[in-house]
Write the structure tokens for this entry.
Amino acid sequence: MDPLMAGKICMVTGANSGIGKETALGLAKMGATVVMVCRNRAKGEAAQSAIKQQSGNESVDLLLANFASLQSVRQLAISFTQQYSRLDVLVNNAGSFFGRRMVSVDGYEMTFAVNHLASFLLTNLLLDILKASAPARIVNVSSDAQMAGILNFDDLQMSKRYRMFGAYAQSKLANTLFTYALARRLEGTGVTVNCLHPGVVATNIWSQALPGFLRPLAGVSRFFGITAAEGARTSLYLATSPAVEGVTGQYFASSQAKSSAKISYDPAIQERLWQVSAQLTQFS
Ligand SMILES: NC(=O)c1ccc[n+]([C@@H]2O[C@H](COP(=O)([O-])OP(=O)(O)OC[C@H]3O[C@@H](n4cnc5c(N)ncnc54)[C@H](OP(=O)(O)O)[C@@H]3O)[C@@H](O)[C@H]2O)c1
């Protein structure tokens, strides 16, 4: 139990597995009310009951949303604001890889849609309740993959040439650019926003990237990176630590501020991505 977190309401997206599940568990252990966002009811309920049992905290709720659908994201924001009167922490964690090019319900390249557009829209739809709950924090789970990211504004949907890692790196660069553009907009509101690299973490996400025979190893940390609990540490640090009270617009790894890709600091690119994202999500 952490007296600073007791009574706070924290939303974690992609909370049924990997880093998101451990982030939700860590927040529940501190005594926060945790709102888990998952796309699959059975997986979500299984994780919810495990988190309640391991934390001893019954205030662990579940909302369902598929981030491959902007309508589902909109419905999530409506359901949340109907059920809760405040939001102290939003952890935008849900993310994925896609071995071949796929499109979302809205017709957008799936990596860009799930990893960037969904959290862009969700965050913007929740900004009023975050501001009304200030001091509040937004934590965006990016990745060092953003260092290799290229935003090709002529083909953001990668319809001409799709590369799995290129699409992933682009989406994670977008998370970082979004963080910096949002921090500028939130100045003076008491709402902070930071992004992070969690480390190379043994989770299900890698199963898409590995050849079939290696897929069972994706979640096994002794073969493949740090554990999900270790991977959640920087998310939890940014979500809860008094040491980062008021800190905003930064990129973190291992709970330390560090530099992100050079291009991510370009305000013109940040703003261009914001405008395109607002247009694609029909958010104004
Ligand atoms: N693992 C790493 O080494 C690493 C490194 C850098 C950054 N990251 C980032 O960390 C975050 C968490 O990933 P993870 O490694 O913990 O992987 P994970 O275990 O696969 O967790 C990803 C979560 O996102 C959810 N998700 C995926 N697609 C979704 C959709 N369309 N709608 C709603 N939820 C969806 C997943 O739900 P399902 O279980 O239903 O698929 C799952 O809960 C991601 O943003 C990832 O890019 C991971």
In short: The helical segments are 18-29, 41-55, 70-83, 110-132, 164-185, 228-231, 233-240, 267-281. The pocket of NAP is lined by residues 14, 16-20, 38-40, 43, 66-68, 93-96, 114, 141, 143, 197-198, 200-201, 203-205, 225 (CB under 6 Å).
